[in-house]
Amino acid sequence: MAFEHETVSRVERYEGAIFTVFTDDVTMSDGSTADRDVVENRGAVVVVALDSDDRVVLIKQYRHAVRQRLWELPAGLRDVEGEDEAVTAARELAEEADLTAGRIEPLIDLHTSPGFSDEWVRVFLARDLTPVPEADRHARTAEEADLEVRRVALDEAVAMVFRGEITNAAAVAGILAASRARDSGWTLLPAA
């Protein structure tokens, strides 16, 4: 029988635009209590955009917390109240990679750092890609102003993961899941 962990008390430590930090006093399996810091996050969507030549769309973007540019997949926060996640994914694909998808479907779900955060990410597979017309493209600002967008063969993206060139957790999971799903003839895709 699994022990039911209960939050005895909660103290808010920080509230920001993207996340809130709490310290919870939680009952432990041995009957004691312990403080656990928790980051509550809006969550995000990530897009594995795969073109007709079996290439995945990667973006290289500056990430201040690690102070480097990382190869990632197009992604964004679920920051529009009530917006369907597939719509959010399509918007992020258009904004970050100047692409639309004829098909966009769920690939995998993941918790990015469950030891301290409730962040939940849904990774979508986007196919049947077409460019956004030049006049309709999103004006990128802030760290997105100098995004590098590149298409890489899916097998090469997998190799980049194993060489440590792609380290963003959602990108690693999405690329490996897309590769496995492709190799299965797409039979592993979850039902929409």
UniProtKB/TrEMBL annotation:
InterPro entries attached to this UniProt entry: NUDIX_hydrolase-like_dom_sf (IPR015797), NUDIX_hydrolase_dom (IPR000086)
Q: Molecular function terms in GO for this entry?
A: hydrolase activity
Q: Does the record's keyword annotation contain Disulfide bond?
A: no
Q: Which UniProt keywords apply?
A: Hydrolase
CDD domains to which the protein is assigned, alphabetical? NUDIX_ADPRase_Rv1700
Domain Nudix hydrolase per the UniProt entry, residue ranges: 40-174
List the GO biological process terms: nucleoside phosphate metabolic process; ribose phosphate metabolic process
Question: Could you confirm whether the keyword Nuclease appears in this record?
Answer: no
GO CC term (a single one): cytosol
One Pfam family from the UniProt entry? NUDIX
- Name the PANTHER family for this protein: ADP-RIBOSE PYROPHOSPHATASE (PTHR11839:SF31), UDP/ADP-SUGAR PYROPHOSPHATASE (PTHR11839)
Stated name of the protein = NUDIX hydrolase
